[in-house]
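Our collaborator T.R. sent over the components below with a one-line note: 'Predict the complex.' Nothing else. No constraints on interfaces, no templates requested, no preferences about which chain binds where. So this is a plain run: every listed entity goes in together, and whatever single assembly comes back becomes the starting point for the next discussion.
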Amino acid sequence: ETGVTQSPTHLIKTRGQQVTLRCSSQSGHNTVSWYQQALGQGPQFIFQYYREEENGRGNFPPRFSGLQFPNYSSELNVNALELDDSALYLCASNGGIEGYTFGSGTRLTVV
Amino acid sequence: AQSVTQLGSHVSVSEGALVLLRCNYSSSVPPYLFWYVQYPNQGLQLLLKYTSAATLVKGINGFEAEFKKSETSFHLTKPSAHMSDAAEYFCAVNSGGYQKVTFGTGTKLQVIP
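Returned assembly:
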């Protein structure tokens, strides 16, 4: 299996709700990172997982959480959604000096 | 700490003209540097990377970038712009290992027929 697949592609949620975004990484890629890209901005690092353990976190509150599974899939969970959470959420596998392989992203709109 | 600064949020060039997108980096250790391209409603695609081998790096679609330590720069160039090059370009830095990658704010490239 090649590439990174994210689901869903688009999502609309109401403020205060919870959301789960999913990512299926390329086989053999043990590292997965999640980024938030607000409109007109560069991607901002949320956190990174390596072999199912979080090993790096950006400046995001604890209501952003994640999981990584042995089958190279991962989840990003966001609780108590706020309007400012509206963004494109990108999953990226591998990384390091080889560079990331990115998925196409999930566009989350909070109303 | 690591960061990148992209000069110019929007760049317009004529089709066939030189493309030059500027990136300056800051890193406390020798960095790994990347350029990514993003087309509308898509994720980011790796164009090229610098990993301390050759300072002139060639990437896909005819793009190249030169690492200049003295100027802390990693500018992206292409000799002749094509309409299909219209996209947003992000410079990124990694200070080593499987650490987070820090992205710049992006430069939107417009190609004028």
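Summary for T.R.: The radius of gyration of chain A is 13 Å.
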